[in-house]
Predict the 3D structure of the following.
Amino acid sequence: MKIVFILLVLKILLSASMLGSKHDLSATNYYGPDSTANTQICVFCHTPHAGSPDVDGLLWNRGFSDLSAFVLYGGAPGLPNTPTLVCLSCHDGINAYGASAVHGGMQHAMYNQPGSGHATGSGSPNCFSCHMSGGIYPGAEWTVGPNLTDDHPVSISYADARVAAPDEFHLNPLNGLRLDNGNVECTSCHDPHEADTLYFLRMSNQNSDLCKSCHIK
């Protein structure tokens, strides 16, 4: 686990596109400077010690209050796998619309504040990172919500989908799209640390090229 975290940190440090991207919630980011915000970048998602007990691995610095709130693509309640769950710790809506799984006090908080000695509390993010144009609630564009029935299936087996419809899927995803333990997750199509493409996509979707990396159409 320590090796995985070190590699993750190295990737972030080596990736210039993470700095100033929409996932940079620090004092100076994509939306403009905020002198009251924290100057660290990684801390809004990761912590070197005592990560969230709700998430396996990744030393995640955010938590949930209601893990039963999620409804998967097929319509049944269920818990997404870790690579998707960590994305939803922000993208489930952060309590903006009254149907969040994020803890009511965690939308602006982290398990470990920078230099806090494991003290949960506000991490002082750049407000404009989430509150577009200073609005009260986050912009709806990125609030997926805990109800995943109207989104692309995640936390599903790619192999099982291909067995059910062998003529509709490539043997394996193409063009750098990835599976996690054989499953399709948010991270199959999105790389949260790279902002070179729209919506952090792993590749351009011009001419539906990203979609056709898995689907045969």
User: Anything to note?
Assistant: Residues 1-15 have pLDDT under 50 and may be disordered.
